Amino acid sequence: MKATKETLSPTRVKITVEVPFDELKPSVDAAYRKLAKQVRISGFRPGKVPPRILDQRVGRGVVLDEALQEALPRFYSEAVQAERVDVLSRPEVDITDFTDGAPLVFTAEVDVRPEVALPDYDGLEVVVDKAEVTDEQIDEQLEAMRDRHGVLKPVERPVADQDFVSIDLAAAVDGGNVEGAEATGMSYEVGSGNLISGLDEALVGAAEGETRTFETELLAGEHKGDTAEVTVTVRGVKKKELPALDDDFATTASEFDSLDELKADVRSRLERSSQAAQASAARDKALEALVGLIDVPLPTSVVDSEIEARQHQLGHQLERFGMSHEDYLQAEDKTPEQFDAEVREGAEKAIRAQFVLDQVIEAEQIQLGEGELMQQIVARAQRSGLSPEQYAQQLAQADQITAVMADVLRGKALSVVLDKVRIVDTDGAPVELPSAEAADELFDENALDDALGEQDAFNDTFDDHADHDHDDHEGHDHEGHEH
Question: Could you tell me if 211 and 330 lie in one domain?
Fold first, then answer.
């Protein structure tokens, strides 16, 4: 067999393969054996039909076609290995010459991993925000704690902003009640704006027992887009009373005996959070800066595959939250064209980062240490609520072990890059990232997904639904594509 490679573009090659007919003989013999078992001819047992009889009955061309189907994948694989082609797509095969007794000639066009020339990133500067905690941030945390420990008490006055009211609701379109739009004794915080447009304005100033009406546009259901007349009746008014911010509150709301101790703990937690955010920003910006120095051509098939995977994942997420694609676009205030453009941009960003990190892995000769893959599987299994054995079995069934290995290696590559770049804050002061032990908590596969652009654009929308009850669908994690 003879194979030659022709570069069509930085991401696509054509392999031309020429196979002498003698090298096809094992496949031809196998085709005769297969057909001999399938063809029933009087006087011959199954599997014992001679080749010359098969030629007469089914034709030599059928035998050669069968042999070709068996031989092509093998010769293609051998050609890829011989020419050291890093294939990223299914081949487009064209048989240019094949007749009985003559050499087989075929071509295969495939997308390939582009060659990435890494620049010298030792000392590359990355600027991140300062990791600082202000008194205002501490006060915000304490106020949130006070709010969680507040007590609702009835008041005898008209409804005011931030009151908690018990209300009855009904909606009508063209004089007919809207099915499913009724509620009795619903609890609602005035001013939250998370129920119906116009409700807050209608409630403020209403007395207990008073009924008010207003018009609003329905956003979902059979009458989506229609203007409805909404009737709201106030059944009760309560105001949240917050506890005093003192030592007694600290004892009630925490394990600390004094307000000063509680404040110190809040500051410590905010500092750790700020340092984690700073480290995360350093990771993202270091990778972004490195990728920005390199022209990375992208194979079309790989981009299309990544886009398809992201849209598939979005479909699963939407299904979990009971949203249609149109509902999601409306919530995000995006057109289908804007959404498609954002998905493509994110996919291309992720693939570029993967290619660059893969080159870092090769240049730095990064390898998986003993037990690292199992540690990652155990960690992911814990987050999924599965045993390591169950999670590993799911990965194997989905053929995702290689993708997990790639995630771990790319995470290590990103850590190598971080060790070599110069990280400073906005004042120009050097930033020291967490120790290796602390970094293990920061640079998990989720953090790497964020850096690679895998963070789903729709997560913020779903976060808005966090107060609703939904199935978790545990054990169905979506693993990233391996390119």
Answer: no
